[in-house]
Design brief:
The structure is a homodimer. By secondary structure, chain A is an alpha/beta fold. Chain A contains eleven helices and 18 strands. Chain A has two domains: 256 residues, Ribonuclease Z/Hydroxyacylglutathione hydrolase-like (Metallo-beta-lactamase, Chain A); 41 residues, no CATH class.
Amino acid sequence: MERFELNILGCGSALPTTRHFPSSQVLNLRDKLYMIDCGEGTQMQLRSMHLNFNRLNQIFISHLHGDHCFGLPGLLSTLGLLGRTGELVVHAHPDARTVFGPVLDYFCRELPYSVRFNAVDPYKSELVYEDRTVKVYSIPLKHRIPTCGYLFRELPKSPHIIREMIDFYKIPVKQIAQIKDGADFITGDGTVVPNRQLTCPAKSPKKYAYCSDTAYCEKIIPIIEGVDLLFHEATFCEADLIRAKETFHSSARQAAMIAEKAGVGQLVLGHFSARYPDNSVLLEEAKAIFPETILAYEGQVIKL
Amino acid sequence: MERFELNILGCGSALPTTRHFPSSQVLNLRDKLYMIDCGEGTQMQLRSMHLNFNRLNQIFISHLHGDHCFGLPGLLSTLGLLGRTGELVVHAHPDARTVFGPVLDYFCRELPYSVRFNAVDPYKSELVYEDRTVKVYSIPLKHRIPTCGYLFRELPKSPHIIREMIDFYKIPVKQIAQIKDGADFITGDGTVVPNRQLTCPAKSPKKYAYCSDTAYCEKIIPIIEGVDLLFHEATFCEADLIRAKETFHSSARQAAMIAEKAGVGQLVLGHFSARYPDNSVLLEEAKAIFPETILAYEGQVIKL
């Protein structure tokens, strides 16, 4: 139950290639699935990565370019065919409801569950969603249309109970929840056994930031500072910087500069342009600035 | 230039599997591409089958269920990114424009080419489209929503000129087009050389019929009679006939009965339900009625 895994469903950009699907990822946090972007083909990739459709309740869309959201109607329709009943929330730019609402009304008239669009303001960083596992914040990015990334801050986990101490002090089962919450234990003779002797801390909570699509933008650094894992788009290499600037995308080198300045643990590059037959040029370029860099690929599972 | 090839891009039904994409096919007629249905992932399949996006000008949609048309926005968007300028025509139920128009207006504002929706009446068989290569007719089917299949009747090709005769009679180049159109040649001394001595006939024109999705429907038989190739849906096997009837789909046996009664050359089964791990049960069932049956699969090219 300490799972924190990033699944890469698609890491290409808008033009289809035989190597890449358009953008989609699933963050698996303690067996709950959080989807980030939903390009065309996402539902096939979910299936081929054996991710459980029933564990998905939240979808976060970065922006309304087709390669980040054209998989939504198919996925939402399939969830209906699979008999889903629980609400599904799509966090996205306010226009998402306007543009996808009529499509769902037409094609998914008899959906056995409800889809709720939660409007995300792409111009400020704010709490978008929280549950007992995670808080998700928006990260305003710099793209041709309003766009935001997402920061996932895992919430602290309860400490682990030390079974030997429970047995030794014969602590009643009904008090265990309180001890997990930090309570001390008082024995029959009034002795206080401090909580730290009864528990050991869980792994420290993790942070993941998704930044795509965006031009080089230092304003995001304070928001993503110190995350364990940063996904940053690297559509182009430095040699194509003019094209990157025109289209409000980043080079691999720029992605690495952001990772370096933000002091992140690891950088994963993605949103690859179709023009590079081999992305190792992007990897080398980024590693020269920030050695802890890897390339995304379809089917990849990054465990934190 | 005598090419008549059916490319199977997707032959699954609505639920995604690791084996099948949703419905899409491309008929390659003398190097012009005619798409039939456009389920999610069609543009990736076009790419992986190395079909030339530029040769596609006509898309025929059978009905407005998502697994037959959710690939349209992504494909139309990609055609724009590839710099297409010529008009593209989508032949579909009149609602297609209503439901996809706003999506294209939002996501494809700066498309460098125009998309025209041609409204197809799903309730009668009529000529939907023609060019110098083919005439395409609608085939009213029996499904939960208005649906039609499509009949492709290749037009007769010009006969081949017999080069040796051209040389022998020293026929001027400017007369060759007339001879291809059937004219005789008159020599300098007034001798008439009949056309049949100067030409040999081209291969006889082919007919292909696409029938999906549909319940068993004998009304289509006169329309598809004698086609060289019939694609007929076989979502279920006979053991699941109750489910087939409920959902207005066919069993493999029913598809074979239609093929047999219509006296077609070959039957290809598709639109497979996700429930069968192995479709050979469908194949055996159909072959018992109509031996010239094959199963569709992604990447398949059927040459006529």
